[in-house]
Structures are given as C-alpha cells and as structure tokens.
C-alpha cells in the first residue's frame, strides 16, 4: 500500500477527528486518522522508524472505520493501519499469547479438543454466570459469561468473558438439516458462535426451520481470518482465505446463499478479503473473493430481504420488553446493514434508540483486548452509559465481538441491561411457548 499517496490525498479537513474512537479517549494528534496518515507517510519516506512508540500508536486504532465513513474522499485509513500492522508483526513478532490464540483459530480440530478441556476447567479460574429469562419484568439478571476469580496473565480480576460450551455448535449438529424446503442456505457460523455463543447459532436453525429453508452447515469452513488480519498475521489470513474461497465456490454451485450471524466475519468475507489480496498483489484471488461476496450476507439482512420472516413475526404476539440496538462497525459502516435487524425486532418488542447507536463499542480486536484493555474498557463504558440511559432492558447487536465487549462494559458499569443477539430474540418471538 502506498502510504505517501494516501496521506497526500488527505486534505486535513479534520472531519474525522470528532468521530475517531481512540482520539476521543486519547486527545493527541498522533492518535487521530490524519495523524496516523502523516506518520505512515513519514515511515514510508524513511523519516521515522517503526520503533516501540510507533507500534503503540498504530496498535491503538480500533479499526472502527468511523473516519472512513465521514471522510469526503472515504480514504481507507483502516486498510493502511492493517497494512502497517503486518510490518510491525514482521519486525517485532507477535506475542506468544496471541500466537496461541491465532494458532488455535487456524486449527479447528485442535481447538475442538482444547475447548472441551477448557469447558471442564474454566470453573476453576472463573465464576460462571447464567442470565435469568428475558421475560422477567424486573432485574433481568447477569449477562451470560464468566468472571475471573483472580487476576491471570492478561485477564484482570472481575472481568466478564464469554464462557465455553461443552460441545461446539458444529459438532452438536449434522452437516445438512432438511426442513423440507425448496432452497438451501449455507451457514458460516463464526468462531465465537461456534464455541461460546451457541444460542445465536441455534437460533438461526430455529428461524430456518420456521421458514422451511434447508441449512448446510458447511463443516469444512475455517475461521474467516479477521483476528489474524487485524493482528498482522497475513500468512494465516492467506491460508484461511484461500481454503474458504475454494470451499465456498464449490458449495455455492448448489446453495442459494451463505448467511453469517456475525458482523465481523461477514465483513471479512464480504469486504476485507478482496482488499487483503489486492494489498498482496494477488489480483486473481481478489477477483474470486469479490465474486463470492455477492452471495454472502448477514443473517438478518438475508431473512429480511429474501424471506417472509417479517410477515411471520407480525402474526406473533408483541411482548412488553424494551430493546435498543447497537450498530456494529462491521455491519452498518462496512456493509450498510442497520435497518433490517431493527425492523425484524420492532415486530414483537418495544424499541428505543440509544443516543449514538453508531458509536464503536471498543472491542478493537485481539491486541486491543489483551494489550490495551484499559482503553477498550474506557470506550466500552461510554457505550454502556448510552445503553443505560436509553431505558432498555436488552441491548442487541449482530456481532459476538460486540457482545463480549458490551457485556463486560455493562457488568463493570453495574448495569441491569443484558445483551442478546437479534437472532435469539427473533427465534424466541417465533416460538410462542418461550413466553
């Protein structure tokens, strides 16, 4: 990527600065979109080195794409940050604890075994929390997850994390689910829904059953590569991306489409894979990534646009439960999906908007969560305050990364609001016996 050319294209108008997630909590010109671009250009021209201070600066970006959205020229600052993180990974390496996570995400069979052991042992170091039923009109309970009993390496005491399930979603179900339908959807589940938030994945199956749509779980799918991409592990991205592209090309010969219940995974498959291969100079693979992207959709978008789900929901009873919605950065800003989940939820629940649903929740990826947790939490607490002030009982978003971040922020803010994926709420609305 030509950092100098990108920096020169920036007219320094400053429209990006008020929207920048990191600049809001660290008001320094170096940690602003135009500051990032100036530093990248200086690095490209050899005026500065990628030292540890530069590393901290470039790792501080949340990749929320707020700046891209408001920029008159829509300059791809996020792509520039992703590119320089590859250079940082080559120079400094990737920390051992992050390498372990990225390795396991690349090796699903090994991760299956580790997850089973993790499920058995997690109660030793964490206190498992289970939420009450969402129909309670009083305190809805705690967010599902586990809280660290004591401080561990890179995990602070009291931090809420998602808890493992005993068996992954893909291992719980047969590969093909016949609902007697005329069409079949492929289902890319995403790692978080596969191992942690399996209720989200199971809700997709319940919705498909009600709509009489067959589901192919495509069990040879691998991680979308987003964690590796944002961390600079481009070798792993290439391996995972090529495996998925080749597999999806074969599957899409018979599938109607592939649906994804995760904004980050969907954006990676829909948008970032093409950008990645273009950065790598692999135009043939970029073209193949673009060709399949037209058939890969966020689940709520597909159900809203291509099925009678909304009509079916309108026939169900409305419930006196108040919801608000957080727009994941990888849904609204990168894929333009924000209306569809709202319309589906409004059919059966009371709905209110929070002050700024488009504000980043502060997840920011593996590095942000592990190395800069305090910054992530600072952003998350701002989002938690917005959620509380909305008066909602439940906050929803089609993204498990946002779920992990927001659930912890709500916990630290001592909030009574719980998080539910919109697909879970939709599945409950369809199942009248659930109320």
- What structural class should be given to the helix and strand makeup? alpha/beta
Low-confidence stretches: 137-141
Which bin fits the share of residues in helices?
A: 40-55%
- DSSP summary: helix tally: 23
Distance between the termini: 53 Å
Quote the average pLDDT.
93
For this entry, what is the oligomeric state of its chains? single chain
* Topology, number of strands: 12
- Provide the spatial order of strands within the biggest beta sheet: 4-6-5-7-8
Largest sheet: 5 strands, mixed
Give the overall silhouette: globular
Rg calculated over all Cα atoms: 21 Å
Outline the structure in words.
- This protein is of the alpha/beta class and 435 residues long.
- The longest helix has 18 residues, at 108-125.
- The termini are far apart.
- It has 23 helices and twelve strands.
- Residues 137-141 have low confidence and may be disordered.
- The protein is globular, with a radius of gyration of 21 Å.
- α14 packs across α18 and α16 (299-306) packs across α19.
- Helix content is 53%, strand content 10%.
- It has helices at residues 3-9, 21-25, 33-44, 52-59, 66-70, 77-92, 96-106, 108-125, 169-172, 191-195, 198-211, 226-231, 234-251, 263-279, 283-293, 299-306, 309-314, 329-335, 339-346, 366-371, 373-390, 400-412, 422-430; strands spanning 126-129, 145-148, 160-161, 176-177, 184-187, 214-216, 257-260, 296-298, 319-325, 349-351, 394-396, 418-420.
- It has a five-stranded mixed β-sheet with strand order 4-6-5-7-8.
